[in-house]
Amino acid sequence: MAIANRTETIAPSKENAASKIARHATVLSGQLQQLRTRMYPPKSEKMLRQFLTNEVSKLTSIPDSTLKLMSSEGRGPVPSRLENNHRVYTLAQINELRELFAKQKPTEALRFLPRRRPGEHLQVMAIANFKGGSAKTTTCVHLAHYLALHGYRVLALDLDPQASLSAMFGAQPEIDVGANETIYAALRYEAVERRPIREIIRKTYFDGIDLIPGNLEVMEYEHETPRVLAQKSGSGVIFFERLKLALSEVESDYDIVILDTPPSLGFLTLSAIYAATSMIITVHPAMLDVASMSQFLLMMGDLISVLNESGAQLDHDFIRYLVTRHDPNDAPQSQVVAMLRHLFGTDVLLPTAIESTAVEAAGLAKRSLYELEMGQIGRDTHKRAREAVDAVNEAIVQLINASWGRG
Ligand SMILES: Nc1ncnc2c1ncn2[C@@H]1O[C@H](COP(=O)(O)OP(=O)(O)OP(=O)(O)O)[C@@H](O)[C@H]1O
Ligand SMILES: [Mg+2]
């Protein structure tokens, strides 16, 4: 592997700490850029795979036989054919089928097209925990994909300067995301540079999912907010209300907004918790992680009290713990899960996100399990992992439906 800017790695004879760190940052960033370009070329566009008739049938509850009949009679969207002549549909075509059936059978419309209806509020879900690596981003991606595959309109919002969620959607933070193109653009305090949230929302390759990408720029909010608070100028919208306010501008465009938060309890995470109508706290069942979550809950409790004192109303439809990267055969993990269930009862989601090499391998290729075709990873491994992740997402959708007053 060629080393970028080799000459720059040679330190000048006398160098102070600041310039040394700056030099290392430049050299490292250049090198990473090169590596990334090679592993995931900047021009590479993510594409969603197509879906076989039996998958479409499961996703839409339209019988296999009906889909086949429609296709041979030339009704509805025209599927492509694989080499073995099997029919495959794009997600856009699946959504076309949904619209078609919802229109044809108005009494069952909700079954085909589950989008929210008048009177059902936008569900804003924050996925949080300040423990790094508790599978926040993985949970967000799988949930977003699941919802979109089932016909919901989703906005995925990356509040993490590491921008792993954006990367999963093919937006490489350092290449594809320019200045004033993250959520910071809609939150920033100087009115001149602030942008309407609609301008920073991007379509993704995944029909039904829009994205607001992140990159290092979102950190500006953590730096700017204390400065503005210290000025006590009293003018402008207070920090925790800005995200909620920005989201209200696109309220009618989505059914669910998913907020991926950074592993910290800063102003952005607080804004997310305030904007959220529900929260999933991801927890890896290991003692250290649970100890860290306990700190997170204590701090969050304190901060929410402070927000309440300043007149903020925090009222979530639901808050649930999700056990992630769970190995049910690991005895110490089982003890931790049992303890969590004992302490928090039904606030711990019954299904758990099982630790799986399939999730890990898919993640490395910037994919969710839903993007893999059966057989790309060991069939049984994939199937088991997929069943577990489906169960988690189904449980979350049930909570969403309940928040909308659906039975
Ligand atoms: N069910 C799973 N099985 C195996 N690996 C998993 C699973 N869930 C997540 N991982 C892996 O664990 C790592 C951390 O996951 P992820 O990035 O989702 O965590 P995070 O909480 O978003 O981290 P951060 O706090 O840095 O934002 C990733 O490499 C991911 O692929
Ligand atoms: Mg993350």
Written account of the structure:
By secondary structure, the protein is of the alpha/beta class. It has helices spanning 17-39, 53-60, 64-73, 91-104, 109-112, 136-149, 164-168, 184-187, 197-200, 219-231, 239-248, 267-275, 287-309, 331-344, 357-364, 379-403; strands at 51-52, 80-81, 87-89, 123-128, 154-158, 202-203, 209-212, 256-260, 278-283, 318-323. The strands form 2 sheets. It has a 7-stranded mixed β-sheet, with helices on both faces. A 3-stranded antiparallel β-sheet has the order 1-3-2. The N and C termini lie far apart (58 Å). Mean pLDDT is 90; it is low at 1-9. Bound molecules: adenosine-5'-triphosphate and magnesium ion (MG).
CATH H level of the largest domain: which superfamily? P-loop containing nucleotide triphosphate hydrolases
Bound molecules: adenosine-5'-triphosphate, magnesium ion
Number of DSSP helices? 16
Q: Let me know the largest β-sheet.
A: 7 strands, mixed
Structural class: alpha/beta
Helix content: 40-55%
Q: Could you give the count of β-strands?
A: 10
Shape type: globular
Structure, briefly:
With 407 residues, the protein is of the alpha/beta class.
Keywords:
single chain; 407 residues; alpha/beta; Multidrug-efflux Transporter Regulator, Chain: A, Domain 2; Rossmann fold; 2 domains; seven-stranded mixed sheet; three-stranded antiparallel sheet; 16 helices; 46% helix; disordered N terminus; binds adenosine-5'-triphosphate; binds magnesium ion
